[in-house]
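Following up on my earlier thread - several people asked me to post the actual chain instead of describing it. Fair enough. Here it is, all 213 residues.
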Amino acid sequence: MGKFLGGLAAASAAWAIVYWLVGPGTAGRDACWELCGEGTACVEGRCAIAAPEPEAPAVAEDEGDSKRRRGRRRRGGRRGADGPAGDGDAPFTPVNDSHVPQFSSAPVNLDKYEGSERLDDATVDREMNKLVPKFQRCVTAAAEASDEDLGRGTLRFKIRLGPEGKILGVSVTAPASLQVFGIVPCARKTVYDHRFPRYDGPPMQVDFSFDVD
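Reply from S.P.:
Thanks for posting it. Predicted structure:
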């Protein structure tokens, strides 16, 4: 009887150990006895390959940052007959010379003038040479507005000069390649705006030429 009781006590102790391992006391342990390794998970008492965790969605690149890194592409455009277009610039506008009278070869009534003076050639050349840089700017502006080379040629001036030093009329002839982008109007207005020295005499004619290389 003592042996039976002893065996019963031992069996009870064994069942107590099993109950402690697999019973309610297993909180904190999984059904696989924590034997599943990395990349696996315990599913219904068995180690199975764990499903991969979903990747975080890629953050969309800010459009403004992207544009700033790429840089800004400048717009360009072919320049038409009216002048340059593109980069947001206004079309080329030629100089307005509509108020500048053309040279006239009409006879002058000498009786209206008491004196007989006229400007000598050296004075005329000196005054016209003052205008050469402005003539060059007229040509440069046209060259920058044109898609093609302007070529060479000569601007020929016929000027009627009054005794007060004011221009009474000016005409400019030029080859076709230089009759573009306001070269002639610019040259005419340049002469008209200039004031020559005064002299005591009738209006005089001035001839001048400017070469474009």
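Strands lie at 40-43, 46-49, 153-161, 167-173, 204-212. That should answer part of your original question.
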